[in-house]
Amino acid sequence: MSLVDSVANEMETTPEDLTSDQRAWVEHSAQLWDRAHAIVNGRPDLDVSDVYHALRTLELPPAERLRRGLTRVRFRPHAR
Amino acid sequence: MSDFVLTPAERALLQAFDALHIRYLLVGMGAALVQGAHGATQDLDLWFGSIDPARLGEAAKRAGGFYTSGLGLQPPALGGEGLDRVDLVLTAQGLGSFEDEYSRAREYDLDDVRVRVLPLERVIASKRAANRAKDLAQLPLLEAALAARAKEDL
Question: CB of A37 within 8 Å of any CB in chain B?
């Protein structure tokens, strides 16, 4: 079963009924997870999820990467 | 929400640094975020090779703020509306001289301001040297970003 099939199944629909945006996101995400696993292969000190999120973040412009990091703090309840 | 990551005062401050030829490096977690780390910070750490109070004061003034050289436990700092996220860093652990690190820095565009940024591998070195709990806790995210960058050649 492909990831697209799996997502469609979880959404109780068929792969054909996914929108082009949904299908593109799923396929791109699967590619990133493959790359993340390739990176951590032989690097047991790395967490594959951290690498996946880094790959996602690296797709953003530098200013947007910084904005998100500063915004994450803003939503923490005890941030100043 | 503003389209800018920097506050107007921060942007004016960095532009004033450029105009006044004040050299600085963005270091710490802010530097790591710019280079793809998936983390968080609440401040922008700017490392200066040396502090010239008069020129820093002029830069702060152009940004609508002020500079204080500190007193007692209060370190040198910038004050004023929109400048509260800026921390002045005078010494950086685990790094070479400011000149060496500055020459190896990466340059990024933040809100149309060119900012020199400590490379991610050097951020990791400084956090290892600092050896504080909060620095060590960030290392897995920084190492993951470094590995991702190496693979992507970004």
Answer: no
| Structure-block tokens of residue B54 | 């008069």
- The whole-angstrom separation of Cα B47 and Cα B114 is 15
Mean pLDDT is lowest, of A66-80, B33-47, B81-95, for A66-80
Q: What value of ipTM does the predicted structure carry?
A: 0.81
Q: Is residue B1 part of a domain?
A: no
For residue B2, the SS3 value is coil
**pTM confidence score:** 0.85
What pairs with residue B116 in β-bridges? B107
Interface test with A, best of B5, B44, B46, B106 (most A CBs within 10 A): B5
**Contact criterion met (CB below 8 Å) for B120 and B32:** yes
Total structural domains in chain B? 1
**Nearest CA to B119 among B28, B45, B21?**
B28
Domain extent at residue A30: 20-74
Using CA atoms, how far residue B68 sits from A54, A80, B24, in Å, is 37, 21, 17
Is B48 strand, coil or helix? Answer: strand
